[in-house]
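Quick one: structure tokens for this chain, please?
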Amino acid sequence: MEQTMIIIDCSKQSNSDPIDVSRYLPALQLELTEIAIRGKGAMCSHQEWPLLRVQRRIIEGRLKPSDVEVRIVVNGIVHNIRLDSDGEMLDPWPGISPAALRYQELYGDDGILS
């Protein structure tokens, strides 16, 4: 099974340690994402909620793509992900996307609901 971590960094400092918010409920992850955006901090999660919030803020014009760095770590390999002015990922999702993982969890490899 793939191990995936999404890192959102608004600090623009290479030595900033991201705070892991994976253990929190999605609503709290979103609030912590807002704090990271406003406070120029860094965070990471195994879930896609923080990335979706960053993409939304870019779409709304409240955050510039150049103000945030997104890295997705899959099985120890770091992938830098660029976002455009519409919040879309310019680079492909490395490995299996969260939506595909949920599909596999529900339906298995054969596509039949477990």
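The longest helix spans residues 26-39.
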